[in-house]
């Protein structure tokens, strides 16, 4: 009973502190989301769709401090990065390396980065990757078999594999 | 623990620990495992499991027994991880996101659990256990039927091929051991996951501090005698609910730590044994339904897991069947919980009898009864 | 004169809701889509006769388990979460009967006889344990049950069974996870005086299966057991047991040995658990070993609680109504739900319903406070 009374006497200062905590909570969560968000970058060195921008003959790309990757015309490679902002060092042939800053769209897991477009500063050089024909994920029906109130989960001993087909409960 | 400590009494009070040490020592030889391997395993498992076991402490202080409802927190943690994987949030940030995203859910679960347990005073443990089963049903419904159906999922790799529901096993590669490897201390042949240990130490400090606060004192009072606490103006039900909420939230964080170490997650099974292993560990460590300390937690984790490390191999070597070791470790886990509960119930009954006699018979008996 | 409201309160809202839900489920099949169920149940559609047949069969299959809970509730030991001990004795009896190559009725009743000493032994030890831990029976019972299931899992691998129908073919030792009783005592009770009806399908093997089959023998067995239990509860021992449960101090003052009565109730419960698993197996057709008994006590407990029993009071009516409602729900709900929304929700529904009702019972304020 007393607790209820105390609860109702929350002063403005206390409300402020609580509100502040809630804001901090959400801010930390958003920060974790942005800083931890992993992206898979597909790096392209291909002609653009309309053919206006040509792929490079030979280009060497370094993302952040990862190992440099060599591309011939028409190549595509992939790498995984964390967070949105990246420094990309591009070295075309024997020319001086060019450093570019790239911001990835936050809510995409897989993006396509076109090196020729980036060098030509043609938007959009980063596009969300949409697979042409999505391969069906491997069959997995295991999610359907849940033991009724099984107190034995992960570490449950798997029963010896039965040679005879096990019957299902009627 | 006042009074004379005779060898007989020592044996009785530490029966579980002694049995454990004997079985483990006996099993080390036939298991054929090197001591280095066993110690490294224990160091890893301390980081992996201690947090979950610590989550049991506060409800014990509040007199609510062993919180089998901690499974609810574990489920919340798993839902958080599912979302972290879904949004592809990597590393420690992924863990942080999982914890923060699931914490409101854990608080809600803890609240529900607390309200249910308040309606089942005197049988909290069995009710908590059944509640975990019940919530497992809700969890399955949520994860197996609504995720990807009512809640859109971004990452097709974690969704069942039928288009909704999460796969049976979730690959946690992007957060795998991110906390453990954040600061890995190498000493000789051993590597110590210091970041995980640090988190555990912080939790221990929190518990020590919490016990000294007003709320912590109230909890002790409620745990000691609800009627007395109520008449002295402590809101009993509210205090009990808060104890359970704290425990559930810790279980949620603990499950995230546990799973990041494991590196993959059995979506529909990982939580089912959380409470079982945690409870077995704290009981092995010498805690009882009413009394537990930080030391019980760590002693228990080491003893229980030492046994778990050696028995599968020992079973394989002695009987030629690995399955026997598996069954044996389940048997030991459940057996030890049963044994501790029996010993505790038996002891407290004897004590009640002694006290009753003390009231009847003269001062000699009263002194004996008061010694405890 | 009891008012309508009083009757409703006595019967309990959850039971009324479940009853109405069940009636609804029986009314729904004609409207349900046929597609989903075809794949799942292997039948052309949800036929009402087949559903009834199923419900009766499952009622008989499980009623003895539920009955087994009554003595312990009456004697104040609470819900028998350690029913697995009885189930394990029954499994020992069943496997021994098969090991001795007993067929037909001899196999079934032989199994029962062989199970009895184990039931008395396990029940006795279990009862003595529970007498030492009054007030904490349920939690401890649950863990004793779990531990013994795993202990017996080790035993199933180690015990020197040799019958080729039971052991792993390649190793020649260790019992299989599921053992078919098809050539031994399958449907020995079900087919006794069974009343067939509906369409007849002839399998390639020449075995006739009926759309509707009333398992007379099984239900007779259940009725007989329930009657004996009813009778027992009215004997001197039975009433003493109830007295112990409702007021131990009063019973003690009346010269009844509380511990002895509780012990007797636990042994009877364990024995009925053993009988229950045999009835279940002869109908189901398989002996399930290893971890299978873990979940069984929970369904039995859910059933008796749905029937209106509380943690400290249960009657034959609770058993019969509860088993019928619970098994009816478990039979009908999955097939109807599956065919209407075309999704395999059955397991989830099972868990939520059965565990939900146990929680309801555990959290209900009981008149007798401890």
Please provide a written account of the structure.
The complex is a heterotrimer of chains A (170), B (372) and C (370). Chain A is an alpha+beta fold and 170 residues long. Chain A is 22% helix and 28% strand. Chain A contains three helices and eight strands. In chain A, strands 4-1-7-8 form a four-stranded mixed beta sheet. A four-stranded antiparallel beta sheet of chain A has the order 3-2-5-6. Chain A is elongated and about 70 Å long. Chain B has a single domain, classed as ABC transporter involved in vitamin B12 uptake, BtuC (Orthogonal Bundle). Chain B has 16 helices and four strands. Chain B has a two-stranded antiparallel ribbon. In chain B, strands 2-3 form a two-stranded antiparallel ribbon. In chain B, a hairpin with a 2-residue loop joins strand 2 and strand 3. In chain B, helix 5 packs antiparallel against helix 6 and helix 15 runs antiparallel to helix 16. The radius of gyration of chain B is 22 Å and the shape is globular. The C terminus of chain B is likely disordered. Chain C has 370 residues and is mainly alpha-helical. Chain C has a single domain, classed as ABC transporter involved in vitamin B12 uptake, BtuC, CATH 1.10.3470. Helix content of chain C is 65%, strand content 6%. In chain C, helix 4 packs antiparallel against helix 12 and helix 13 crosses helix 14. The longest helix of chain C has 29 residues. At the B-C interface, helix 7 and helix 15 of B face helix 8 and helix 15 of C.
